[in-house]
Amino acid sequence: MLKFFSRMERTRNFVLLLFAVIMVISLIVFYAPAPTDVQGNLIRDEAAVAKVGSEQITVGELAMQKENISRMGRDLPAKFLVDGMIRERIVRNESDRLGLISSDAEVAGYIRQQNKSTDGKPFNQKLYEQNVTEQFGSVKAFEQSVRDQLSGDKLEAFLTAGVMVSEEEVLDDFKRKNTKSDLTFIPITGADVAQTIKPTDEELKNYFEQNKQNFYINAPQKKIRYIFLNTAKIGEKLPISEEELKAEYENIPADKKQAGVQGQQIVLQLANPELEGAVLEKANSLVAQARSKSTEEDFAELAKGQSEDTRTAANGGRLPGLVRENAKNPTDPYQRLLTLQPGDVTEPIKFQDRYYILRRGEAVAKSFEDAKKEIEVSLRNRRAYGVAAELAQKVTDRLKEVKDVRAVAEEFAAQASMSGSEMVRETDFVKPGDEVENVGVSPQFEEGIAGLENQNDVGDKIPIQNGFAIPLLVEKRDPRDAEFDEVKEKIIETLKVEQARTRVEEIAKQIAAETTSASGLSAAAQSKGLKAQEAKSFVLGSPLGEGPNAATSEALEDAIFNLKPGEVTKSPLKIGDNWYVVGLNNREEVNMEDFAKQREKQKAGTLSGGEQQMLAMGRAMMSRPRLLLLDEPSLGLAPLLVHTIFEAVDEIRSEGTTILLVEQNANAALHHSDRAYVLETGRIVMEGDSKQLAADPRVKEAYLGE
To answer: 2-164 has which CATH code?
Structure first.
């Protein structure tokens, strides 16, 4: 709606001033530091990410929001989600201040209406609570989101009550929100540009000399030589008999012996976001039908008639393969089947542009032969770790005796199933927090070498990735000024980032100036060492790109909407620290039939001026009044709409309803009334039959422009 306000100065200024004040007040305490990783146990984290008024947005809420978005197959930056949550809190606070918060009864009524069963069965409270808990974490969180939505609708209606919107603006807004565009775009980021920069040795040395204080080494450094024992190598020669494998198989719980589970699906396409309510309503209806008759055959008949996935619909919605646990892809909707009992049917699951209704079938057992290889690997790894730990202790004891890494490695090479040279490794000079080759950033390794202070000190065995390390201190250096060669890699990365900051805008402008068509963007990106990306069926309002660099802005959306197929944005667009050059390959225009359907449910505040007047008159006539009062119904309307309004006035009048009309359009008022009164500064100066007044020379001269 703010797009409408921009064309109406008085209303726009009021709204923007109002929200500016709210933002200033709320952002005084905005954005308390918080971790950026929102996975795993962070859902229970109560640390504040932001504070709006008296309300906090916690890491846990952000984690839940990100998880819900991931279930839909999307990956949005945490900042994008936080911004949305801040907007929700602002709307909530302002709705509360204005007394527009939705009541419990309104929330309950909305939820019951949305979950209304098509077969007339009563609202299933238990099923409702189960579904929303699975999708939103708790009933309380879901109902708060509904309350916020309803309160937001009230606030929007309040703010837009006096806004007159033309038919052209309504249609333009619908087109903006529903037009799908296939884009090629180049995100020009500092990180990407930095990868293309190759500083010379002279530049690096000059930078080092000018910024030597920034590379001061403020912690002791240690060079470590260590013996490495590879657990997998040790496990390769461990003997494991067939009987041991069978015994292991027998000890596996029945639910872990599954090859996978069978499943069926009904898929509903979500081709147009504006129709999501209707699609979800249909999906809920199908869920109710599927649960009332939950046999495989009943679900198959439903899938054949209703599923929009032709690949599986013809086979009764049966999935072509078994569903197996896949921890690497938790957003896969089919993983839900593993949490159900045979015969259970899920609630509608939204993933990308589809709604899925899934039915769990029977589990298929995994035979010993099918599981044999997996069991052997698991058993071998477990035993290998124990053998490796025991061998590592022997190596540690021996190294503490002789203080010679290479000699001890050769002595134990056969037992480790490695060569002596494979077992000996050496680090650079490292300090806590450094990434160590073959080890990474390892708190265990740092702790294991922390006590080594003198040359040839030997530490205890340390678990590291793929095995164990037994360390010996070669040399220790105290804090000091760094030498160029030892910090050269760090200098390279630092200088590349600094140079990239100054080049990003220049490169973006060069690409925009040199590229004449969308098809040329890929080549333009390659010439700068960058990579062009594709966005299929892009809809305005969605972030452009993926991951932490995904973003959008009003300027970007305006530029995309105004592009013609084949065109490229004439100037690069900046969002945050990044720049974008965008080309339009193809555009799928909106279906005007969908616009007509959407208009049936359109909010009064977004109707055109004439439509708002017609709606107001219609609402008034619903009470069958004997007297209808109209206050300047033609104000601000186009001539054609004025004609339509007064046609409606004549029709109401012809049906016997008395009308008292206050109207600044004297000509129209006199031609559509029986008796008229002329008022000046609040006083009646003339009155009489409308036709007689219309013919009065004084009226003609003063009010009719004749």
So the answer is: 1.10.4030
